[in-house]
Fold this sequence. Notes:
By secondary structure, the protein is an alpha/beta fold. 49% of the residues lie in helices and 9% in strands.
Amino acid sequence: xxxxxxxxxxxxxxxxxxxxxxxxxxxxxxxxxxxxxxxxxxxxxxxxxxxxxxxxxxxxxxxxxxxxxxxxxxxxxxxxxxxxxxxxxxxxxxxxxxxxxxxxxxxxxxxxxxxxxxxxxxxxxxxxxxxxxxxxxxxxxxxxxxxxxxxxxxxxxxxxxxxxxxxxxxxxxxxxxxxxxxxxxxxxxxxxxxxxxxxxxxxxxxxxxxxxxxxxxxxxxxxxxxxxxxxxxxxxxxxxxxxxxxxxxxxxxxxxxxxxxxxxxxxxxxxxxxxxxxxxxxxxxxxxxxxxxxxxxxxxxxxxxxxxxxxxxxxxxxxxxxxxxxxxxxxxxxxxxxxxxxxxxxxxxxxxxxxxxxxxxxxxxxxxxxxxxxxxxxxxxxxxxxxxxxxxxxxxxxxxxxxxxxxxxxxxxxxxxxxxxxxxxxxxxxxxxxxxxxxxxxxxxxxxxxxxxxxxxxxxxxxxxxxxxxxxxxxxxxxxxxxxxxxxxxxxxxxxxxxxxxxxxxxxxxxxxxxxxxxxxxxxxxxxxxxxxxxxxxxxxxxxxxxxxxxxxxxxxxxxxxxxxxxxxxxxxxxxxxxxxxxxxxxxxxxxxxxxxxxxxxxxxxxxxxxxxxxxxxxxxxxxxxxxxxxxxxxxxxxxxxxxxxxxxxxxxxxxxxxxxxxxxxxxxxx
Length: 671
């Protein structure tokens, strides 16, 4: 049975998205939004109580005490389903890291056309972490050794993943004591699948301990090294001016939208689009040039480094095509809807797949190869330019918003102290004083079963009012960008008084864009440095911080959430829980839910909870932050204590007579 049909306003809070949904309805074209209304999820599968891991099933457990054909209980089946999802998410992000490491190796050996090492300082700093010699050596020599080290982490069978030593010392001790330090990235993913085969691991807590190990291999392994290599090859992000939303498409230019997750492809398309031959080729086709924009995490990659605009987040991939203005959507891996090809057949848009891992029936496949990167990028752009003449009716929403992305861990250090005194000390001091109540990382996907962008932005706005500094990645970051929350001006009237003082003093937005989903490891790095700076505990689990994924839908989100829990963070997911069970029918279905919350908190200081109500998410976030402040002996947050200083206050005082200014500033009574 289909759910009630929602209006465009109920489907998305984004006016650009609403316009395209109205157009889709007028043309009789379905989208992920309408398909979600037509498709009611199976309640048994949604709650993780369906097992299809062998040919005897599928087994659907619907009542208290029921077991599968093999005798598997509800809690065992739920634990198996959860670890399989975590393993899949870890495999996706870590495989991305593997490809980045191979690209670094190719660049180091002059085998990758068009690529150079753009951040030698980051290369040297990273190599030093692993005792790779750097003095008197050329960058490519260092890069070759670093690439070899990183590639080895995937197939390593014994020992420890080298990158885990970058966690706080106390956190490493916790992992050693609980036996969850990953031995090799691929080994932990494979073991997750082995343990969940018919007849293997049947203790839910034992299964979920290995889920922790697998997720650490992702967060403190494959994903972390992916971010390292991206920075080394393409430059460590620093603030740039960008724009977001469908209004970044141009009616007088060839529009090419890159979508997926691999910066090796998107960065080279950016470079190719700026070559004289491609610009001239576009003009010969009647366009003024090539206009690039991004969707999903590829958008974040080129946005934070090149300032290339973001056309939207995950649920806007179909809507971009509905404008009729996109000549080509170039995709690689992850979060790409199969429906794109059928949708594009109603317009002139070409869907071009590029990865050897991803083909879509009906799409054009141009396989990308880093060894011929620039040549292939130009070929892809020529395909798009040749398609310009086939464009029909165009409807581009006049909706876009400026933003400042690019707040890498390195830049945050610099912005807080300058070149000579770069430090997290000012941030720690602001938290300790109470100007900043705490930190929230709001990340993750969009999900058409909730109102597009609403949960992300509602939670963000409400926490900002309570002096919580927000860091964001992925599609959640694009949601905030589209509302103007990633501009310095947003701090003047949308955030608490203490946080506003900090934003005005440092010159930052109240929401910091930190990159794509794989860059959640930047957040771990920031938390680690907060700990190392002192004053906020000696491990991540003591920091007044919370992670939230309000609109999650991807298995990668589950892996991210789990490695954050393993690192000591409280993580809140929105929507429904994949291990919730049905309490009105099954009384023993909350074993897994309790363990990933209470059990993991006892072991790691972090926990994972699924909360559907946004106000409850906010309440739990603030309660956790305040609990951590109390445990550290910090003063209670006082909303009215700060806010009468900073640039905004100075502008107010300029309007007053000098005597009144003196009294306001120094307490000297006016004559």
